[in-house]
Structure formats: structure tokens, C-alpha cells
Amino acid sequence: MAHIDSGDSRGRSKNIELNLVPFIDLMSVLITFLLITAVWTQVSMMQIGSSLYGKKSADDPKPVPPPLAEVVLKVDVKEIGYVLTVGKDIISLPMQSGQFDDAGLVAQLQRVKQLYPEKKDVILAMSDVLPYEVLIKAMDDLLNSGFSAISVATGGPI
């Protein structure tokens, strides 16, 4: 409890006690709420662009990528079908009779695996409007083709 003594002009003193318990309760609830919500603000964001080549420094004008990182493999799952990007090559796999062309994707991924047998990393980007099952099917196709290091990006174009 906080205690305040103040003198009156007539010589009387006033004794005032402030009850700080409700204020402390309010602050503990606010701090708890802040800590809980601060964790959830970072869940939907993933950094993948800088993790492929590492951080750039001012001394090094041309960064040296790690082995096999010079060929970026990315699979975009869109409403019109799959778009496979291998380095600078873009391969479009449109939907076949309303279904995603999983057989065509696996065939193209196996062709990429033959060209780069040591490559295991791939970026899988998907639009937010598509169902979750489409993402799982694309991940299964990537795993069956031998790409085990899958980075997932959502929320529109990369």
C-alpha cells in the first residue's frame, strides 16, 4: 500500500492510503496478453530469400553461393496449375481436366534430379486461396522425387 501524509493549513494532517493491488493486477494481465500475442505475430512470415545465399557483406562484391545453390528450384502452385522454375528456366504445367498435373510434375522433377543428382533443396510456394490438400500432394511429389529439404512459402507471389 502507498501511504501519503499531507499537512493542512490549519495544522490537521490527512492520511491517504492508495490501494495499488488493482493496478498491479491490471498490469500483470496486460503484460501477459502482450507476451502471448507477440509470439503469434511472427508465425506467418518466413525468410527464405536471404537463407539461400547467406548474408551479403560490403567487402565481398560478389557472394559465393554454397554448393548447388546456384540452381534455384522452385515450384509455384497456382490456380491454373504448377509452375516449375529451375534456375532461369520456367516450365508451366497447366491443370488437366480440372486436376493438377501431378504426373507431369513428378516427370519434370525426376528430369531435374537426373541433371542435378546432389540437389535436395526446393522452394514450394502456394497461393492462399488453394486448399491445404494441394500443398500436401505437391510436398509428397517432391519427396517421392528425392527432394527432402522443402521450404514452404505462402501468401502470394515470391
What do these coordinates show?
This protein is of the alpha/beta class and 158 residues long. The chain folds into two domains: 2-40, no CATH class; 67-154, Nucleotidyltransferase, domain 5 (2-Layer Sandwich). 33% of the residues lie in helices and 27% in strands. It has four helices and seven strands. The strands form two sheets. A five-stranded mixed sheet has the order 5-4-3-6-7, covered by helices on one side. A two-stranded antiparallel sheet has the order 1-2. Strand 6 (121-126), helix 4 and strand 7 form a beta-alpha-beta unit. The two termini are 57 Å apart.
Query: What's the number of structural domains?
Result: 2
The whole-number mean of residue pLDDT values reads 76
| Name of the CATH architecture of the largest domain | 2-Layer Sandwich
Tally the helices: what do you get? 4
Please write the string of helix (H) and strand (E) elements: EEHHEEEHEHE
Largest sheet: 5 strands, mixed
Helix percent band: 25-40%
Termini separation: 57 Å
Number of strands: 7
Provide the spatial order of strands within the biggest beta sheet: 5-4-3-6-7
Label the structural class.
Answer: alpha/beta
Query: What proportion strand?
Result: 25-35%
What radius of gyration results from the CA coordinates?
Answer: 29 Å
Overall morphology? rod-shaped
Q: Predict the CATH topology of the largest domain.
A: Nucleotidyltransferase, domain 5
- CATH class category name of the largest domain: Alpha Beta
Poorly predicted spans: none
